[in-house]
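To whoever picks this up:

The parser on our side crashed when reading a file containing two proteins. I've narrowed it down to the boundary between the first structure block and the second sequence. Both blocks are reproduced below exactly, byte for byte. First block:
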Amino acid sequence: MAANCNTIPLLTPYKMGNFNLSHRVVLAPLTRNRSYDNVPQPHAILYYSQRTSNGGLLIAEATGVSNTAQGYPDTPGIWTKEQVEAWKPIVEAVHDKGGVFFCQIWHVGRASSYAFQPNGQAPISCTDKGVTPGLDGMDYSPPRPLRTDEIPSIVNDFRLAARNAIEAGFDGVEIHGANGYLLDQFMKDQVNDRTDKYGGSLENRCRFPLEIVEAVVNEIGADRVGIRLSPYADYMEASDSNPEALGLYMANAVSKFGILYLHVVEPRMTKIGDKYETPHSLLPMRKAFRGTFFAAGGYNRQDGNKAVADNYSDLVAYGRLFLANPDLPRRFQLNAPLNKYNRDTFYIPDPVIGYTDYPFLED
């Protein structure tokens, strides 16, 4: 047991702005499809509190900013009073165990269908090019491009969602600028085909996401704001011809606002022989951004320790491993075996199965 007394890099303390974190293992934002009628449910109290450690950082699942923001069944929102009230006991449970809790605020854009839109209208995006219907088994509907004069109202939806998150008790918000959703659709040149000030050049494509960052910072303070980006990814058919330039431009731009953190999805790992390797590096983005940096994307214990030890990342976000191991930091500390996750129960509406029934280590 003596070897376990040596603190591994992932379990060293870290000061993130005003937050004193006891370790660097972050709960990544994970859609779980268990918020019936877009309202967070009491079963989420147990789910998040199970994954809370004193001084640990958790990021809540992607949470819609408006009634046009949804694209999946039973995902939570934070645009109504009822939703804000429903989040309060969940946030309180995390705080009662000493956790730090951020809300990821989200708009799916074109990754939606008529069924999820008010009055069955078309999803909104930067373009009228839709996601290929049937991708990931979803029935995507053709979007309509936002008019230039409509964009300020979407920016305002994010501002109000951030204000609501603080009212619900969250310590801050993470703006979802990744994974092929609305902000990513504007940023990526393979999706954005606009000819107004929100399309064309790199600066124009990034204008809308940066207007959201500015509005949210002005509303709740830069020290409570993070953003998630995935320049290298092609989720939802949202890819860019020059991801390095996009990532570096955004890292520099959000850094100027003094935001708390930048959370970036690792480039896709490719299998070389029997080992997965990453052809690109997030280091240029990490060096450009002056706040806290964290990486996500298929990390295990060993990779995470190396990322922190090498100063590649300050924190590491864990998704599937944390979903299946509510006591993940403790298991990492003891180098204990991990529960295997069951992909079949990731996105079902059951309030217990595949949600709060993953076992803890025996004391």
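<<boundary where parser fails>>
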Amino acid sequence: EALGVVLTEEQQRNRALLVADAKHLDSEAEIRRMFGSAAVKDKGRRLGAGSLGKRLTLSHPKANWPAMRAQAGIEMRAADLEAGQAEDPTGGSWFVMEHSGRFRSVQAEFLAAVMTHSADGVAAIAHHHPYHVDALLQLSEILKQTGGDFAEAGELVERALYAFEIGFAPRFSAVSGMARLDFRYVESRTLYLALFRHMQFMSRRGCWRTAFEVNKVLLSLDPVKDPYGALLTLDFHALKSRQYEYVCQFVSDWSWSSVDLPNWAFSRALAEFMMERQQGQGSATHSMELLMQAILKFPTVVPVLWSKANVGVDDVVLTHPYFQDEVIADTSAMTHMQLVVQLFVERHTPLYRTPE
């Protein structure tokens, strides 16, 4: 039972794949586990901004953050279910974000600054309204694209997540695997963006377990439609955080959307291979079978991945017609599968450069 809803066995299996571990959503705790407490600067965490009585999981306010004396003007309410959502196969509870009148007035100033390409205007809004989520996310992107302080850019995203968490509905639990957010509402989309950017910053810092847990939260908001393509990154973050059993379990149990994708086919084989090594198995029979299945299903991955990873493969293999794909001079004319293959190769190549 989740959020007062009795789940079927299928829903329970899928939900188990989405439940996030709150203790692993803290990137600084992950850094301390890897490098010791000396690696993390003490900023008096969970003191400055306050939590306004909320239990926080996605964000961890720091003492140097501006105090939040009132909510940021973004609040969450239970969604008015339509026929399609009422028959939601996931059994999840749906919510939407809303903006207050005060937030909308500031939003008008923010949009004016964006339309005039005024970085100073965006920075001024973030200064005077330190928890205006759109301004925080935009300023973070400006810092990232102009070569600014990446640590500060990541912290701005976390401040936006903090503002969201303060406005969460009492029954909304980001880590439960059952809380859904209606992407059709523009106000709701910013939370998707904030989670996606936070996941990217965690990856950049090498906080792979945190990125993995955030990825699960992002997918759980709408696991059927998956508007931010969380399925295209979840396997990668699972492998980087050494959650090999999760990858295999996901391919086996997930039924709310298709995992018939090259990243999951190859990642399942790689995860099985890593588990075989951990268990001290001399042979890699099962993982090789899975790899052959992946190659047979997505043959055009082979020449692109092997070339990118500098893996030596017999020319007879690479020149075989079975592995050839049509060369697309204009990337905008790529088919859906060609694009998915390219994304997979660009993201996963480092995993295939290891001696193993």
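After patching the parser it read the second block fine. The mean pLDDT is 89. Residues 186-204 form the longest helix (19 residues).
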